[in-house]
From TrEMBL:
Residues 15-118 form the SnoaL-like domain. Transmembrane segments: none annotated. The lineage of its organism: Bacteria, Pseudomonadati, Pseudomonadota, Alphaproteobacteria, Rhodospirillales. It comes from the Bacteria. This is Nuclear transport factor 2 family protein.
Length: 130
């Protein structure tokens, strides 16, 4: 993690950008840029592996929560090949008039040698009650 494109904040920004990208081709390009080929994702509700699996998972989440966007909360924390960051899923641009975030979570990531994400484990800190 030595250059500007692989800083902890840049890696987390790219991760969030992939989750928010609705154009399939651009989303696939973001996944390829930010995730290693053997990458995996796991949270209490879903899991995926490889670029195809990640793309399908992100697409499914976007279909389940149309019009909502992910945003980073706070500062990205990192050491060695590990990242920790929190996020919210809510109205675009965090519009307070549109309401509070629907969900919040904290993700822990392991980086591959090239600085891309190798695995992400997500914890859900706040989920919808209904």
């Amino acid at each position: 993690m030595t250059n500007a494109t692989t800083t902890p904040a840049a890696i987390a920004d790219l991760y969030i950008a992939a989750w928010n990208e609705t154009d399939p081709q651009r989303r696939r390009a973001l996944i390829a840029q930010g995730w290693s080929e053997d990458a995996s994702y796991l949270d209490p509700l879903a899991g995926a592996s490889g670029h195809d699996g990640l793309d399908a998972l992100i697409d499914a989440v976007q279909r389940q929560f149309p019009g909502l966007r992910f945003s980073l909360l706070g500062t990205v924390d990192a050491h060695n090949d590990r990242l920790r960051f929190s996020w919210a899923l809510g109205p675009a641009n965090g519009d307070p008039v549109a309401g509070e975030p629907l969900a919040r979570g904290t993700d822990f990531a392991l980086l591959a040698a090239d600085g891309r994400l190798r695995s992400v484990t997500g914890f859900l800190d706040q989920v919808p009650t209904a």
